[in-house]
Amino acid sequence: NIQEGRSLFCGDYELFRLRALAITGILLCHFCHNYNSISFLGHYFGGVFVTLFIAMSGMLFGIVWNNNSRMEYDMSFLKQRFLKLSVTYYPFLILMFAFLYFVDDYHFNVKNVLSHVCYLAWFDKLPNFGHLYYMTMIAICYVALYILTKIPLFNTINKYRLKTFAIIGLGVLLVDYVLESRNIPGYIFVWLWLYLFCFVYSCRIMEFSRQCKTNILAFIVGIINISYIIALYYGLYDNYNHAFQKWFGAVCCILVLILGFNIWNKSVPNKYVSFLSFISFEIYLMFEVVSEGRYSLMRIIDNPFFAFVVYVISCVLLGCILHFIVKYIKKYVL
């Protein structure tokens, strides 16, 4: 997909680096959450870089879609996307349930298995694997793409499209605020809106990033991201409705995305960045084994610096293990 997007709109250099940046931010998020003194940084890294993963997915599909005459997606699109996800996700689920049963002594039930197999993990979270809400989110986004490409208002260029997105965004903000007030995760709609916005306006976003002056853009991105960190430090996450916090994170995410396309569009990423980007999905699936619960390395190892080094190395190794298992399945089973 990245190579396809590059050939159509010169986007893979930036996406490689942004994916590596996103998975690094997610690892930092869960590292910081293990220490009360820097937990606010955990909210920052999670709010920006989990969102960045979602935005990049929308951007990648949008680049291809915009350069293929904004074609309508049919059921083959959904089959292809879920097959590609499942080739990695289902082997991971086997490992996850084996870990829960044999190592963590957790007795799951049929409902747990079915909900995860059907990409409904957000609504049935298991110990140490709550991060699989992302799989539910990305499944919702794929279905939304299938629907959106069939709506004339969005699959053609017209003056009403941006206004409609803006009005929907305000509606999403209101719905999110109401739901979060009732302890319901309304930010699912924030991420969905962001995903669809990045999909429809992917080429516009990239063109805009090329036109910006790097120094001015970097200054603006830095100021807004630092403001977000300061707000979190003074209790934005704890003292106010989470809707505002998620929108603030989404704004920071978009700015980081634009800056990435601005500064990383000419040079080829080195082999370490490319490798980290290549297995970023596998790392994301596996990392909570050593970041949460009784097996959290930050709880086992007293020295934070040493814990961080071992934690990052362990996450990359776990990602590699899953990657090679999937590679074996693709070669000898499928």
Comma- or semicolon-separated keywords:
334 residues; mainly alpha; 17 helices; disordered N terminus
Secondary-structure content class? mainly alpha
Fraction of helical residues:
over 70%
Largest sheet: none
Q: Determine the mean pLDDT.
A: 86
Regions with little confidence, pLDDT below 50 for 5+ residues: 1-10
Q: What does the radius of gyration come to?
A: 20 Å
Bulk shape: globular
Number of strands: 0
Distance between the termini: 20 Å
Helix segment tally: 17
Strand content bin: under 5%
List the secondary-structure elements in sequence, H or E. HHHHHHHHHHHHHHHHH
What is this structure, in a nutshell?
This protein has 17 helices and no strands. It is mainly alpha-helical and 334 residues long.
How would you describe what is shown here?
The chain has 334 residues and is mostly helical. The protein is 76% helix and 0% strand. It contains 17 helices and no strands. Helix 3 (39-66) packs across helix 11 and helix 10 (202-211) crosses helix 13 (242-263). The chain is globular and about 60 Å long. It starts with a helix and ends with a helix. Mean pLDDT is 86; it is low at 1-10.
